[in-house]
Amino acid sequence: MNKKRKHCIEARSLLCAASLLVAAGAQADTVVVVGTKSPASNMSKEQVADVFMGRATNFTPLDLPESSPVRDEFYSKVTGKSAAQAKSYWAKLSFTGKGTPPKEVPNSAEVKKEVAENPSLMGYIEKSAVDGSVKVLFTAP
Length: 141
Prior knowledge:
By secondary structure, the chain is α/β, with parallel strands linked by helices. The protein has a single domain, classed as D-Maltodextrin-Binding Protein, domain 2 (3-Layer(aba) Sandwich). 47% of the residues lie in helices and 17% in strands. It has 5 helices and 5 strands. The chain has a 5-stranded mixed sheet with strand order 3-2-4-1-5. Mean pLDDT is 86; it is low at 13-26. This is Phosphate ABC transporter substrate-binding protein. Keywords: Signal.
């Protein structure tokens, strides 16, 4: 094998490895948050899933936009459904009058703002967005 070809193969291998590392790091931890005035202190994955799938009414859930990768990651890790499957589930419940889907807010900053103002609201955000206005009840595995 000539020297030039060997360098090309090595360069491709390094690019592939770097791409995998970037992709792995792109998935940030997702956390479920409530305002600091909420009496809740922690929740299980099943309890969180029940809130976001309308099976529990102890909190009113907030959703990030459909285009948000955090929303996809949240539903996949917590409910075992894709965000599209969760939307379909809610469409059926809404159509039959058996439930109202989570309110959609534009971004993590708005989730924090709304849960901080209302102790009955619950949302999910990137772990890196957590600040003193919210407390974490659950971290998605």
